[in-house]
Specification:
Blueprint (H helix, E strand, L loop, with lengths): L6 H12 L5 H8 L9 H5 L13 H7 L18 H8 L7 H10 L2 E6 L5 H11 L8 E6 L2 H15 L6 E5 L2 E2 L7 E5 H10 L6 E6 L7 H19 L5 E6 L5 H4 L11 E4 L6 E5 L8 H15 L4 E5 L3 H14 L5 H33 L18 H13 L2 H12 L10 E6 L5 H5 L10 E6 L12 E6 L2 E7 L6 E7 L2 H9 L7 E5 L3 H6 L14 H9 L16 H13 L8 H9 L9 H6 L6 H9 L6 H13 L13 H22 L2 H5 L2 H14 L4 H7 L3 H21 L16 H14 L4 E4 L14 E2 L7 E3 L12 E3 L2 E4 L3 E4 L2 E3 L3 H5 L4 E4 L8 E3 L4 E3 L3 E5 L8 E3 L1
Parallel strand pairs: 1-7, 1-8, 2-5, 2-6, 3-5, 6-7, 9-16, 10-12, 10-13, 11-12, 13-16, 19-22
Antiparallel strand pairs: 3-4, 14-15, 17-18, 17-20, 20-23, 21-22, 24-27, 25-26, 27-28
This protein binds cytidine-5'-diphosphate and magnesium ion.
The site of cytidine-5'-diphosphate has 15 residues, from helix 7 and helix 8.
């Protein structure tokens, strides 16, 4: 039964506009340039370029001067022409019982939270409720964000089908593709897409409603969106252009949203959707398999299929290649007619999807390169990383590591362990992962062929975003592939780790949708007891300097005031700002000012032009700084190669492992000698040797490309072939990113670089020093040796203990006075890896924030003379903050 909208509702709609909003004072500040005391973050949330124009005095006038925009009128009921079957199916969903409650809450509150078990109908139904109630029009539509691309695409298709309309009306937009039209009224998108739209239109005027789906996943982008939207909703209300915000979560754990005064001053109402959940019996393994969880899963599925009554099986694994190998194994063991050709086709499709994805990405980046005029220092920058790519990347990442068909086939025959195909027990096996073509994904929602059991082999996409009908048995490997951030280098990688208890329970819950079910956990209850309770919000798991840089690029100056649902720690924020100041991405406040800021926790350094450029590169700010400096003297191709090599990490084969036999030891020794020799060759002599290990990276990349990047070359010289291929891919990406910022440079990737000239090497050393400035170390001089443990040691600003140049470094015997390093690893001692020598004269100019100056700098400002390698027109004494104060050094 559809409600008729009453005039009372209209009243409540308009009362929202005039509701007393505690943030309104702050918002008023924002309308008056010059009132810079702004203690509320709203002040900082309004980009300078946003209307109203300077001098507009009062908010009421602002509203009046805003262009009149037709708003969707929620008093009009819009009929939907569903098929009777679809309508019947919908009526079974628990959320239908809550339609009235949800719509009333939405009409009376600007922000509403909807909680309900996965499968209760949140994603598919709530947008339809809103549509029917008139919350969309030509100019203001309903937007729904998903943390995953796969969900954005699948859900837009499903909703279009349920509403019996085409995808011209219910559309999707993911980063490199979309099917939006003029007719679009409901738009599904990834959270990253909406964040980009905020960069262009802060008030999100084309939306009447924004739904943040899967908020419980707490992806960094979802979190930032919630912070931004809490303010956008208030600003829109003031302009009499109300925006509704719906937050949808699969768990009831929403305190981070409701108990957070900073985020939402009035806690939004929470509508709970009670769903029928049948009991699920959880079976733990007695023992936890150490590494072959996939094999253990396989045995479990075989057992279930042979011995237990009818009912679908859902298997949770971690990545695409794993899922494929598993499907192949199952199909071999329990063939159905036509499973073989289907498999072939699936593999072809998956390879095709990957190619298409990569191609569309390249095309989009090229298009971007043409669209941006030149180094653009004033516009908002593009976001460098992420945008819901994580799943795809996690899956591709594995695809690239597991790699060739050969690997998989080998794995197959060995793993089957002589399993005889059981033709009498066919199994309908389907894979499910993010990169799978949408038509193939849709297969899992269709009933299996009559009398044949369904078995879906999935990654964690099946955990909360997609609900598969008819599942009675869940087999959970307990693992998930997650992005892991290296705190030292800021470099990320994908690692397989245990899931949280909450995720494990979500997985188990998939078994009890339609009847009582069973969940088989391939780990012991003791291991489960050690799982973390909830996955920690992503924002607390990673360094935030890149995030802070992005937010500053959005003109959010006082990041500390930003209403994060879960803020990063104060230390993480300060560290991030300090690093960004040192890199020149943020304007350094005067010293006393900064101290005050730290005391009252008011970090508020504005972004610099350099910072805006840096924000456009898809690498950590340290490396972005290197790229930004490399315009000069044609250094870009070299810096790109070095940054790519650093990001990929270990270029050389792992040779430090203990040998199992004498023979192996001999082989290992030989290979180690070869690697050492190649490192010396690539480091060269004189100027180039001073670039140190970074020169080795450059030399290795250059030489390898010169040899056509062949597996033979890598094998002969101790290089990891996969790493070299990855570097080539990254060099391509970074070249595109640089071109996007400044197309007239017209940089094109020439794999075969000429070696840098001697003076280019000197510039490169300065560029590296400028980027790695916080990783500066000073050699302890013999006259200051306190005891033996400091012999040949270096002092760094952050560590009390001596650090040493790693024996694998080409500078191990050189012992330069000052070095920068890429990372410190701790084994028997603290060792610096990736070391490059720095000239003492460069430090005051390149890294002034790491020096204490004795008196003001003399005019004119210090300039570096490349011919002599000296700093000119500059005379003052410098105390290096690196280590103990030294006698003042006079620099001419
Ligand atoms: O968002 P939430 O997890 O609450 O549920 P949903 O995704 O809206 O799914 C509601 C129902 O629609 C589930 O029972 C799904 O099985 C079904 N559905 C479907 O049959 N086909 C799709 N492509 C998507 C959902
Ligand atoms: Mg959902």
């Amino acid at each position: 039964q559809k409600r008729r909208r009453s005039s009372a509702e209209e009243t409540s709609e308009s009362s929202e506009d005039s509701e007393s909003d505690p943030e309104s004072e702050g918002a008023r500040d924002s309308d008056q340039p010059g009132t810079s005391t702004g203690t509320t973050s709203v002040h900082n949330l309004v980009p300078n370029t946003q209307p109203p124009p300077a001098g507009t005095p009062a908010p009421s006038q602002t509203a009046a001067s805003a262009p009149p925009r037709p708003l969707a009128n929620p008093t009009i009921f819009i009929p939907v022409n569903r098929t009777p079957e679809m309508q019947e199916e919908r009526l079974k969903l628990p959320i239908l019982a809550e339609e009235q409650a949800i719509m009333e809450a939405v009409s009376e509150n600007p922000i509403v939270i909807v909680c309900g078990e996965t499968g209760s109908g949140k994603t598919t139904q709530v947008p339809q409720f809103l549509y029917e109630a008139g919350y969309s029009s030509e100019d203001s539509i309903i937007g729904v964000t998903e943390p995953r691309r796969v969900a954005a695409v699948a859900m837009s298709q499903r909703v279009a089908k349920e509403m019996n309309v085409s995808q011209r009306v219910v559309s999707y937009q993911i980063r490199y593709e979309g099917n939006m039209t003029e007719e679009t009224r409901i738009k599904f998108m990834t959270d990253g897409v909406l964040l980009k739209e905020i960069q262009k239109d802060f008030l999100l005027l084309k939306y009447r409603v924004v739904i943040i789906d899967e908020a419980h996943e707490r992806s960094v982008y979802t979190d930032i969106l919630l912070g931004l939207l809490s303010r956008i909703v208030a600003l829109r209300a003031k302009r009499h252009l109300p925006l509704k915000l719906l937050i949808m979560s699969a768990t009831l754990r929403v305190e981070d949203f409701t108990q957070n005064q900073r985020l939402f001053t009035t806690p939004p109402p929470v509508i709970k959707v009670e769903s029928r959940q049948f009991p699920v019996t959880v079976h733990f393994n007695k023992q936890t398999p150490l590494d072959d969880y996939s094999g253990e899963c396989f045995r479990k599925v075989c057992k279930i299929h042979r011995m237990l009554p009818a009912g679908g099986i859902l298997v949770f694994l971690t990545g695409q290649a794993e899922v494929h190998a598993f499907c192949r194994r199952l199909r071999k063991a329990f063939p159905t007619r036509g499973s073989r050709p289907q498999e072939k086709e699936e593999e072809k499709d998956s390879a095709e999807a990957m190619r298409k994805f990569k191609k569309s990405r390249t095309r989009a980046r090229k298009a971007q390169a043409v669209a941006l005029p030149q180094i653009n220092l004033d516009n908002y920058s593009v976001l460098p990383v992420g945008e819901g790519d994580e799943d795809r990347e996690a899956e591709m990442d594995e695809e690239e590591i597991v790699g060739s068909d050969l690997d998989l086939d080998l794995g197959d025959s060995e793993a089957d362990g002589g399993e005889q195909p059981d033709v009498s027990l066919p199994l309908h096996v389907l894979p499910l992962y993010s990169l799978l073509a949408p038509e193939k994904q849709a297969q899992v929602f269709k009933p299996p062929p009559k009398g044949i059991r369904l078995c879906v082999v999935a990654t964690n996409v099946a955990e909360t975003s997609l609900t598969i009908p008819g599942i009675k048995y869940v087999v959970d490997c307990g693992k998930v592939k997650r992005r892991h951030y290296d705190r030292v280098t800021g470099v990320s990688s994908f690692r397989v780790t245990w899931v949280s208890q909450a995720s494990a329970d979500q997985r188990a819950g998939r078994a009890g949708r339609t009847e009582p079910g069973h969940c088989y956990r391939l780990y012991s209850s003791a291991v489960f007891g050690d799982f973390e309770q909830f996955p920690p919000p992503e924002i607390t798991r990673r360094p935030v300097e890149d995030l802070i840089l992005q937010m500053k690029a959005l003109n959010i100056e006082k990041v500390i005031n930003f209403p994060f649902p879960t803020p990063p720690s104060m230390e993480a924020l300060i560290a991030a700002e300090d690093l960004l100041i040192a890199l020149g991405a943020l304007q350094a406040p005067p010293k006393e000012e900064r101290m005050k800021q730290l005391q009252v926790s008011q970090l508020s350094c504005p972004i610099t032009a350099l910072g805006r450029t840096m924000a456009t590169f898809p690498v950590a700010p340290r490396y972005a700084k290197m790229l930004a400096l490399s315009w000069q003297h044609d250094c870009l191709p070299y810096t790109i190669a070095i940054v790519a090599a650093i990001t990929v990490r270990e270029l050389f084969e792992e040779l430090d492992r203990p040998a199992a036999s004498d023979e192996e030891l001999t082989v290992l020794k030989g290979r180690r000698a070869r690697v050492a020799q190649m490192k010396r060759t690539w480091a060269g002599q004189g100027a180039s040797l001073k670039l140190g290990d970074l020169m080795v990276l450059l030399g290795a990349v250059g030489a390898c490309e010169y040899a056509g990047c062949s597996p033979q070359f890598c094998q002969a010289n101790g290089l990891r072939y996969k790493a070299m291929l990855e570097i080539r891919r990254l060099r391509g990406q970074l070249t595109t990113a640089v071109n996007a910022v400044c197309p007239e440079v017209g940089l094109f990737l020439d794999p075969k670089m000429q070696p840098p000239t001697e003076s280019q090497v000197t510039y490169l050393r300065q560029i590296m020093a400028a980027g790695l400035g916080d990783h500066l170390a000073r050699k302890v001089q013999s006259e200051e040796l306190l005891d033996e443990k400091w012999r040949n040691a270096y002092k760094t600003p952050l560590l009390d203990d001596p650090v040493f140049i790693h024996p694998s470094s080409v500078l191990f015997r050189e012992l330069p006075d000052f070095v920068v390093y890429q990372e410190i690893i701790e084994t028997t001692k603290m060792y610096m890896k990736g070391v490059s020598a720095v000239e003492v004269q460069w430090i005051p100019t390149l890294l002034p924030s790491y020096c204490q100056f004795d008196g003001p700098l003399e005019e004119p400002a210090p300039t570096y003379c490349p011919e002599t390698g000296r700093v000119l027109c500059y005379r003052t004494s410098v105390f290096y903050r690196v280590g103990w104060p030294l006698p003042a050094v006079q620099v001419d």
